[in-house]
Amino acid sequence: MKKIAFIIFLTTSLSTAFSQANVLPAPPQQGIIALTHATIHVGNGQVINNGTIVFTNGKITSVGTAAPASDAKVIDCTGKQVYPGLILADSYLGLIEIGAVRAERDEDEIGNLNPDVRSVVAYNTDSKIINTVRSNGVLLANVVPDGGILSGTSSVMQLDGWNWEDAVYKMDNGIHFRMPGLAPQSTKSPATDLLKKAYDQIDGVRTFFREAKAYLNEPTHVQTNIKFESVKGLFDGSKIFFVHCNLVNEMMIAVELAKEFGFRTVIVGGTDSYKIADYLKQNNIAVVLNQMHTLPVMQDDDIDMYAKLPYQLQETGVLYCINDFDEMNRGRNLMFNAGVAVGFGLTKEQALQAITLNAAKILGIDKTTGSLEAGKDANIIVSEGDVLDIETNKITNAFIKGSEINLDNKQKQLYERYKTKYGITK
């Protein structure tokens, strides 16, 4: 039995290793490229009809209606839609390949306090999942570690590159705190015991940060504390404090921590964020809405609560973005999650902004990406139809820093393989 299991595992590993070998990272942009006669969705709410976008050396040089220079390589986008590259704000992309195979999961570290764990060095550019996600227009992802209470440090990765050094877009951008749940479900342990344990864990994290602050205020150290050194960016504002939580009491504790230590804080999850939206706005707390297609946390919540949540935050002025955190989808339904929010109050441009510019602002990369503006990186996608619509979305071109990437993937290859095998013509 063990021998059969080993053979199955070896076969799976080999098929993973040798498949999709023809999908190579794109070389740097050469010359000037112009996308013409397109409907350009800038990402900040502006739409330019019959527009032209020009980029060179990986940077956008102009967006408007003017004709491109004569020496530009022109790509006619008549009838097509041009958008900023989409951004996953919270993802295990590149850390998990086959979820059922422990050897192919590299997102989870043992121990409770692991702020020194860095997802960037574990990011696998050879993952076959990545190509299926970018085929839908996702060009950047915030890759996040898991495990423990302080899970470690995330990095924003561009979804093209030979290795993690090529792929990193913003290194070590934030520390992730996974708030212990403060609404225990029915278990063998009394609810009071579970709550006490959760509050004790939260107090442990608060104590850790107080000790780290004292350590970092020391002019010299007898010994270097790697864990304390890894959170230095939270205190000087160069890193973001991502708190994964959903309920009102959990989010209020996150705000208390932000106030005590001066952390730039983002709520990840935020199921109940609409209940304290004004409070979050007053304290400059942004929210990453992780999932749209799931049931509410509390039994008396509206069944469509998740779909209505983006509009509720939009109306109150809270900075938020829409995400697709699902181990089955791996982020490939990001744009369709935003499309669902359109059916519940958002305009299409607001929904687009929730997966582009808003996500860039939350991740601290809006100076270089998130919208199609001169001076920003040429992270661009071209679709035959509405990128938010599952029926018409068809990405025909994608550029990361001006380099046109290969949109082929293993799923497309299998489709062609079996279409040919069974003689399917349509």
TrEMBL record:
Keywords: Hydrolase, Signal. It holds the Pfam family Amidohydro_1. It comes from the Bacteria. InterPro entries: Amidohydro-rel, Metal-dep_hydrolase_composite, Metal_Hydrolase, Metallo-dep_Hydrolase. The keyword Hydrolase applies. GO terms for molecular function: hydrolase activity, acting on carbon-nitrogen (but not peptide) bonds. Residues 1-21 form the signal peptide. Residues 329-402 form the Amidohydrolase-related domain. PANTHER family: ALPHA-D-RIBOSE 1-METHYLPHOSPHONATE 5-TRIPHOSPHATE DIPHOSPHATASE. This is Amidohydrolase. It comes from Ilyomonas limi. The lineage of its organism: Bacteria, Pseudomonadati, Bacteroidota, Chitinophagia, Chitinophagales.
